[in-house]
Amino acid sequence: MLLKEYRILLPLTVEEYRIAQLYMIQKKSRIDSSGAGSGVQIIDNYPYSDDGPGGSSGQYTFKIYHIGNKIPGWIRSILPTTAFAAHEEAWNAYPYTKTKYSCPLMEKFFIDVETKYYDDAGTQENVFGLSQEELKHRAVAHILFFQM
Fold it and tell me: What stretches pass through the bilayer (predicted)?
């Protein structure tokens, strides 16, 4: 298992980023929903309380991204239709989110993304409460989108 931690520094507060993120998710969903064989299908979207990741409360969503029109025709002709859907399950308890990405074609393959947002310079250590063994295998990358 790959354990990678990205510390992404932005010139925004956590609250400013939350507003920007909500806007961009809506905009991207609208853009991707144009054309045949494309779009975002929202299967589930409901609030949860105290039964989410970490015992938190928030909003659960299950989406299917139809990506068939993004795949070259010659590849589409040799793959089953299950290859053209990406599943996203998300537990949004901002400023903590957990998202699981999967593809029905490859049942055992998935990507889990846990995100925590802090108003700092990415200096906090072990924000996910990893064990000493996990910390040994964790790789940390700092990403800076602006000049300090």
Answer: none
